[in-house]
């Protein structure tokens, strides 16, 4: 597992209060992890803070799974 | 008129996060006051308050017991206290498994005096330091006063009236009174009613300090600071927590064999129309509020055995309230006991009236009047009244009166009696 993936999963566990095992890369924030649209806004803010990336609204809308987040961060960081 | 009874109780206080622990500590004359731990208050007007204790404390509060992890992160502490106290009350009333038919007729009237002040403060700092894109998307609905009623209704599926009173330190009493009327008027059969507050934060202490409302002279002995009617009193000690009751229509409660704690028989409300923070110099608002509650109750003043006073330990308010009681009760004042439990848990602001109504109910249940701590040298005007100094007192208690008065000159009184 990449370092990015580890850090993303940690943030998801903390923010959504879900068990770490449930946070697989294929997991959908809304369908599998019980998030609502505002929880995703909060997650995106936390990713921006943690990784120093900017995630504009149109990009944030396409982040629906854990893997989407990891891929976006890896492609846009630094 | 439909009769309204109390069938469930829930408490989160600085002396215990459940009804029996809090009451046991109140009767044992313990104090919940201490040096503020939430932030370094050394350079503030005062550095002490009555905080709800952490989960690992002997009588601490565990937010994880009834509030989801995600919600704990999103909302202010007053909402967390409120959800927990409401859960306690529902469990106590045996109403965790209501039918749909019952839930359509069950509502919430849970308010707060100020609402999410710590979160307003901290997110304002985020805004100033990091800009608008870093403010929490849960900022608004995690701070709004009606969001205890909102959260509790969602958690338990309560689809009746959803209401939230905001009348400063009278909130808890108004919440219960208003909800009782909703049941009496046939808008609902069951109401979760009460109040919560959590404002022990830098801007809260600074704000009340600047208003010259807080006790400041007891930094070395905070447990001596809240001393209603004592000559050495110098302001209130801030408390925090929640008190919530289940109110229920009498026949509904009887039909399901519910345990009935008390009947809400009188409710009075008035405005001082005088000053934003100072009480009316003749206590006229307090007098009229109590007078209305007594009239509605159908009881005689001589029937009241115990008064839980507003009694905040401020120089002006305590004696004016006592004067108003003296005027209304006449000679009957010599036969009742009157105390202020704010001497033990501080002033819970919007939670106070509800928490103190619960103490009134427990006083009736156990036939014991809770004490007024630190009442070493009563003011001269207090002669001839049993203010229950220092120690709880066993006595007959069949009917009680609870007073709450708030900034803006808003007054509420509740009369309850044993069924």
Automatic annotation (TrEMBL), chain A:
The lineage of its organism: Bacteria, Pseudomonadati, Pseudomonadota, Alphaproteobacteria, Sphingomonadales. Belongs to the acyl carrier protein (ACP) family. The keyword Kinase does not apply. This is Acyl carrier protein. PANTHER family: ACYL CARRIER PROTEIN (PTHR20863), CARRIER DOMAIN-CONTAINING PROTEIN (PTHR20863:SF76). SMART domains: PKS_PP. Carrier of the growing fatty acid chain in fatty acid biosynthesis. InterPro entries: ACP, ACP-like_sf, PKS_PP-bd, PP-bd_ACP, Ppantetheine_attach_site. It is found in: Cytoplasm. The modification O-(pantetheine 4'-phosphoryl)serine is found at residue 37. Keywords: Cytoplasm, Fatty acid biosynthesis, Fatty acid metabolism, Lipid biosynthesis, Lipid metabolism, Phosphopantetheine, Phosphoprotein. GO terms for cellular component: cytosol; membrane. Pathway: Lipid metabolism; fatty acid biosynthesis; Glycolipid biosynthesis; KDO(2)-lipid A biosynthesis. 4'-phosphopantetheine is transferred from CoA to a specific serine of apo-ACP by AcpS. This modification is essential for activity because fatty acids are bound in thioester linkage to the sulfhydryl of the prosthetic group. 4'-phosphopantetheine is transferred from CoA to a specific serine of apo-ACP by acpS. GO terms for molecular function: acyl binding; acyl carrier activity; phosphopantetheine binding. SUPFAM superfamilies: ACP-like (SSF47336). Residues 2-77 form the Carrier domain. PROSITE patterns: CARRIER, PHOSPHOPANTETHEINE. One of its GO terms (biological process) is Kdo2-lipid A biosynthetic process.
TrEMBL record, chain B:
It catalyses: a fatty acyl-[ACP] + malonyl-[ACP] + H(+) = a 3-oxoacyl-[ACP] + holo-[ACP] + CO2; (9Z)-hexadecenoyl-[ACP] + malonyl-[ACP] + H(+) = 3-oxo-(11Z)-octadecenoyl-[ACP] + holo-[ACP] + CO2. Gene3D superfamilies: 3.40.47.10. Keywords: Acyltransferase, Fatty acid biosynthesis, Fatty acid metabolism, Lipid biosynthesis, Lipid metabolism, Transferase. Pathway: Lipid metabolism; fatty acid biosynthesis. Its EC number is 2.3.1.179. GO terms for biological process: fatty acid biosynthetic process. Involved in the type II fatty acid elongation cycle. Catalyzes the elongation of a wide range of acyl-ACP by the addition of two carbons from malonyl-ACP to an acyl acceptor. Can efficiently catalyze the conversion of palmitoleoyl-ACP (cis-hexadec-9-enoyl-ACP) to cis-vaccenoyl-ACP (cis-octadec-11-enoyl-ACP), an essential step in the thermal regulation of fatty acid composition. This is 3-oxoacyl-[acyl-carrier-protein] synthase 2. It comes from Sphingomonas tagetis. The gene is fabF.
């Amino acid at each position: 597992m990449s370092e990015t993936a580890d850090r993303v999963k940690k943030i998801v566990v903390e923010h959504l209060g879900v068990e770490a095992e449930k946070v697989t890369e294929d997991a959908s924030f809304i369908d599998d992890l019980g998030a609502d649209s505002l929880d995703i806004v909060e997650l995106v803010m936390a990713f921006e803070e943690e990784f120093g990336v900017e995630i504009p609204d149109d990009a944030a809308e396409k982040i629906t799974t854990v893997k989407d987040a990891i891929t976006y961060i890896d492609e846009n960081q630094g | 008129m439909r009769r309204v009874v109390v069938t469930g109780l829930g408490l989160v206080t600085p002396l215990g996060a459940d009804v029996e622990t809090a009451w046991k500590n109140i009767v044992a004359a313990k104090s919940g006051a201490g040096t503020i731990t939430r932030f370094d208050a050394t350079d503030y007007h005062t550095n002490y308050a009555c905080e709800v204790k952490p989960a690992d404390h002997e009588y601490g509060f565990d937010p994880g017991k009834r509030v989801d992890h995600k919600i704990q992160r999103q909302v202010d502490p007053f909402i967390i206290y409120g959800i927990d106290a409401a859960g306690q009350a529902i469990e106590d009333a045996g109403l965790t498994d209501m039918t749909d038919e019952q839930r359509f007729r069950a509502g919430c009237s849970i308010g707060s005096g100020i609402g999410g002040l710590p979160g307003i403060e901290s997110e304002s700092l985020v805004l100033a330091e990091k800009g608008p894109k870093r403010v929490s998307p849960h900022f608004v609905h995690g701070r709004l006063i009606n969001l205890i009623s909102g959260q509790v209704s969602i958690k338990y599926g309560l689809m009746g009236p959803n209401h939230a009173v905001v009348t400063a330190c009278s909130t808890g009493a108004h919440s219960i009174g208003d909800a009782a009327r909703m049941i009496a008027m046939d808008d609902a059969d069951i109401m979760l009613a009460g109040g919560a507050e959590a404002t022990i934060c830098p801007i809260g202490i600074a704000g009340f300090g600047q208003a010259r409302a807080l006790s400041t002279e007891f930094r070395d002995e905070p447990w001596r600071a809240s001393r209603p009617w004592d000559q050495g009193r110098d302001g209130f000690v801030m408390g925090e927590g929640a008190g919530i009751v289940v109110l229920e229509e009498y026949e509904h409660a009887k039909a399901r064999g519910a345990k009935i704690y008390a009947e809400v028989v009188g409710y009075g409300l008035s405005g001082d129309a005088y000053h934003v923070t100072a009480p009316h110099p003749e206590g006229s608002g307090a007098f009229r509020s109590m007078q209305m509650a007594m009239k509605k109750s159908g009881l005689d003043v001589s029937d009241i055995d115990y008064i839980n006073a507003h009694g905040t330990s401020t120089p002006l308010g305590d004696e004016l309230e006592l004067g108003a009681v003296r005027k209304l009760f006449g000679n009957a004042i010599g036969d009742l006991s009157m105390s202020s439990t704010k001497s033990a848990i501080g002033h819970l602001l919007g939670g106070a009236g509800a928490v103190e109504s619960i103490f009134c109910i427990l006083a009736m249940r156990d036939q014991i009047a809770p004490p007024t701590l630190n009442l070493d040298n009563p003011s001269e005007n207090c002669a001839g009244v049993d203010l229950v100094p220092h120690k709880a007192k066993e006595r007959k208690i069949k009917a009680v009166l609870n007073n709450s008065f708030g900034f803006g000159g808003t007054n509420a009184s509740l009369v309850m009696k044993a069924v």
